[in-house]
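Operator note (shift B, R.M.): manual run for TonB-dependent receptor requested after the automated queue skipped it. Running by hand, logging everything below so the morning shift can see what happened. Input copied straight from the record, untouched. If output looks odd, do not overwrite the archive copy; leave it for review.
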Amino acid sequence: MSKLLPLAWLAVLGAADACAQADSAAADAPRPAVKAAADDKQVQQVTISGGRASDMDERRNSVAGKQVYGREELDRNGDSNLGDVLKRLPGVTLGGRPGRGGDVRMRGMGSGYTQILVNGERPPAGFSMESLAPDQVERVEIMRGPVAEHSTRAIAGTINIILRDGYQQRDNQLKLTDSIEQGRHSPNLSLTVPGKTGSLTWLLTGSLFDNHQHDQTATVDRDTRADGVVVKDENVLDETRRETRGLFLTPRLSYKFDSGDTLNFQPFLMANRSDSNGRSDLAQGAGLVPPSLLQPPEYNLALTDGHTESTFLRGFGNWVHKLQGASKLDVKFGFGAGHSDNDALRYQYDNAGNLLDRFTDTATVRDRSANTGGKYSTPIGKQHSLAAGWDVELGHRQETKVSLDKNGAAQFADSGDNLTADTRRLAVFAQDEWDISAQWSGYAGVRWEGIRTTSSGGSAGEISNTSSVLSPLLHAVYRIPGHDKDQIRASLTKSYKAANIQDLIALPALSRLNSATQPDRTGNPNLKPELATGLDLAYEHYLGRAGILSASGFIRNIEDLIRRDISLENTLTGPRWVSTPRNIGHAQTKGIELEAKFQLQELVADGPAIDFRSNYSHFWSSVDDIPGPNNRLDAQPKQTANVGLDYRMKDAPLTLGGSLNWTPETLIQSSVSQLVYTSRKRSFDAYGLWKFNARNQLRVSANNLMAEDAIGANTVSTNGLTQLANTTNQTYVVWSVKYEMKF
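Run finished. Output pasted below as returned.
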């Protein structure tokens, strides 16, 4: 990758030379004049109202590659959670099984490589995008390469969720939804109310939901010695029923002063309450080996009741102050608070119904954060903008875990101890965005970030971790002469992935059926951030109003890759398998991404009213310190694809549509001793939309119509023993009916 740096600088110098030889920029277009009537006749008043550029125009004009998906995409399929929307976007995949979502991944890269922002800011700890309703979101921005004004903790890219901001909204909106899974109803109510009084405008958005779910998982655990003797053979059937109730509130207030300054504030409140009951049946396999050779099962039946409460509050605000000329100062501020409480009571019985043990688990987490920052921007001549700014973020976490058996004995050394952690993040940045000529636009930026994490409590005592990263960033766009719909993008960037606070200092997370395939998890305060050098190239051809054909490629060289090692360790409760994160060395990933999106009527005269969407991505990766052939980055599939159609009928106010999301099976050598398999994922969604009139419409949709089982296998071979855990998770079709009205 270092060989690419001189080439990149040559490209920048070439762009500057092209600028020097280019014709001077055209003068500002004259304002349209209104010719007054010679007589006293009334002249028709013309009102010109500005607003945000269209999604495709924002994508086309952005120097740093950015894809924008607004309300049309968010509303298209009537999804009940934001994850179902994101899974159809180019290069985006979801962990977990269909219908239940999971962590959001760009370019197939696992949790932590993709940066998730809400209104350009990091969400509070514990925030789950899966629980965010699409009705709360105005648009989603996907940036494949980092920019200086946002954090560069984005090796795979950044997904920025912009909450409802009221652009051109005039009507109250009410949406009533009922989702049905296995006969269980999950109602949802969403209301949006805009308003204005003098210089104050507001948009009040809220949602209420009551979600009912049932999950079933079958697991086969089998341990085999090197001589082929099976010493453990167990079948576990887990069933869980869960009811979750929640509230979302995202009001937005904006005040415009007489001086032209603007003050904006948008709090975001998410509150969830969940009750669950589970049943776990454990039986030994029959017919493989004599029962006398098998280890006795830990239990025959386990019953668990759980209760979870979580509340997250995040406030976003900014003050835009206009300075002399077109310069401005944008000062932002924010705060966050969150708490979660988890209580579980588990009873384990033998095959005669006798109580073997009782486990009481309690976990409490309290988070607080505050941040401020700003950006000063000023034009330098025409089509040239310079900006610089800062970010400061302070975070505090207090965490307690208590795990007791029926005798009141602690299950791990730190049980009941209070652990506190403080995080301080400081960043400064500068960026220069310049329309060099009619063909060239460039972006150069640099960002320095420093993070310090300290903690106290528990057996580890006082620990600290400090890291800093300097990220130079280059982006360029070349518009092909004579082809006004074609352009080429290139980016050369430095980015990083910081170890999360749980991996640094977390209290142990215990596994009830402890094994190499189901180990306890702990942290490592000595972790260093992963550093990546990245190159992105893309060709874009724009079609009509909202169409595009694009082909792009990327490469990332990653140093100090973090992976988890599994080892058998002696603890106060005896030998246990423990998973610990470590920096293991160098890795590389690369890929190609193709996208086609267009309206058929814009390409074929008198064609049917069909909107077509498709994308395909292929990924390669390797980890140097792990033997092949499947030594890929964790959870990264080799391919992923989406295809979708929408058909608007001519003789009826009906639109029909559907989409297919596909990810093939993956087999990954996660470490020298661990092999992980995940089955293919095919999710077919369909919908029908009937518009009664401009203010009322009914949408019927179905998600995960194929309802294929999700199968996974985890194999660990160490200490002369091979442990296999093979899981089968059922998935289900989810039907939804949504009535939408404006008033």
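Quick read of the result: The first strand starts at residue 66 and ends at 69. DSSP finds six helices and 34 strands in the chain.
Leaving this for review. - R.M.
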